[in-house]
Amino acid sequence: MAFICVDISCLYIFLIYTVFDCTLSSNMEIKVNPPQDFEIVDPGYLGYLCLQWQPPLDLDNFKECTVEYELKYRNIGSEQWKTIITKNLQYKDGFDLNKGVEAKIHTLLSRHCTNGPEVQSSWSEATYWTSEQGSVETKIQDMDCVYYNWQYLLCSWKPGMGVHIDTNYNLFFWYEGLDHALQCDDYIKANGKNIGCRFPHLESSDYKDFFICVNGSSASKPIRSSYFIFQLQNIVKPLPPDSLSLTVENTFEINLKWSMPKGPIPARCFIYEIVLTEDDISCMSTTGENEMNITRTSNDSKKLCFSVRSKMNMYCSDDGIWSEWSDKQCWKGDIWKDTLIFFVIPFAFASLFVILLAYLISYKQRALLKMIFLTKKEVFSHPEALC
Ligand SMILES: *[C@@H]1O[C@H](CO)[C@@H](O)[C@H](O)[C@H]1NC(C)=O
Ligand SMILES: *[C@@H]1O[C@H](CO)[C@@H](O)[C@H](O)[C@H]1NC(C)=O
Ligand SMILES: *[C@@H]1O[C@H](CO)[C@@H](O)[C@H](O)[C@H]1NC(C)=O
């Protein structure tokens, strides 16, 4: 009996406490200010921007707890916001500077801080546009960048439409690790104008955003800049495989082998596409190995040929560019036999015959010469007889 009494009194105390707690927090509604001085700063890295802010005013009541910020940002026109929750006072990310950037941030006080529900401030907002000069038509066209064999980056472009003949374009690039944006120092030129860039050796530049800006100048009108972001491992075009070999194992099976392209790309990063031609029928297959066993569709095909091309696979990149096709490697089993019977053997016989003939002729000639010589000698050795 006594036990139950104690238990009930506990329950009462608990109920009273809870009610009191609720009224307390709803009466003194906790408010927090948004972060101050929220801004988007462009350090000149061609798209890598810094979003920064200062702590909100009147934070003194929450000295004991860490304030968090919820940051949302996107390129103007894109559907989705990227959301970040952070305790820091800045955040950096890459943006497409062909478009504007918008961002908003608010302060968050967790349940731990308020002893009640989570509290959010109103939003602080900021936008950023690069100074847009010139019309859209003055931008370069058909920008194409390829990272050859994961070694040499090459970009090329065409001039904008209707730009004046004096227009020239310049390329700048930056990636994390460089102090500042660099200008291309090996331009590809046509008629004295820059239409592409050969990049220098790029150290530790993979798996990070690579930013490019191509801007230009002309005496007649301003030129609009173009911005590009990509990751180098996604635009790799390997060399084609080499040292192809085709072995006919038995009547039905063929073994195809090749060497992976030479260079810095690891073996595990390749996928290969193989085209096998049996007489006039071609079939295609892919593999990650540098060998493949294939069953022939017909056991009396006269001619088998194959070639291979390579690409970066999904374990090493999100995308890639197929290499050129390798040289063709062929097997002409029966044709060889035919050649042997109808060409090599008759040729060998013919050659033998010719050699024999030549020998006979030269032998006869020598005999003839000897005879003449001997007769002449005979003639000269009996001069008196002649007189
Ligand atoms: C092109 O961009 C670079 C790098 O941002 C800048 O230093 C340069 O002044 C720009 N040139 C023109 C003509 O806008
Ligand atoms: C192809 O066949 C050969 C011999 O039968 C075998 O040694 C090799 O492992 C096979 N290769 C593959 C990729 O299956
Ligand atoms: C080749 O295939 C044909 C039918 O497809 C069959 O009759 C013949 O025996 C095969 N030849 C050999 C050497 O296996």
Automatic annotation (TrEMBL):
Topology versus the membrane: Single-pass type I membrane protein
Protein's UniProt keywords contain Hydrolase: no
Gene3D superfamilies per the UniProt record, alphabetical: Immunoglobulins (2.60.40.10)
Compartment(s) of residence: Cell membrane
UniProt KW keywords: Cell membrane, Disulfide bond, Glycoprotein, Membrane, Receptor, Repeat, Signal, Transmembrane, Transmembrane helix
PROSITE patterns found in the cross-reference section: HEMATOPO_REC_S_F2
Keyword Cytoplasm: no
Main location: membrane
SUPFAM superfamilies noted in UniProt: Fibronectin type III
GO molecular function, one term: cytokine receptor activity
Pfam families registered for this protein in UniProt: IL6Ra-bind (PF09240)
GO CC annotation: external side of plasma membrane
Protein family according to the UniProt entry: Belongs to the type I cytokine receptor family. Type 5 subfamily.
Function: Cell surface receptor that plays a role in the regulation of IL-13-mediated responses. Functions as a decoy receptor that inhibits IL-13- and IL-4-mediated signal transduction via the JAK-STAT pathway and thereby modulates immune responses and inflammation. Serves as a functional signaling receptor for IL-13 in an alternative pathway involving AP-1 ultimately leading to the production of TGFB1.
Subunit-structure text: Interacts with IL4RA. Interacts with high affinity to interleukin-13 (IL13), but not to interleukin-4 (IL4).
Protein name: Interleukin-13 receptor subunit alpha-2
Source organism per UniProt: Castor canadensis (American beaver)
GN (gene name): Il13ra2
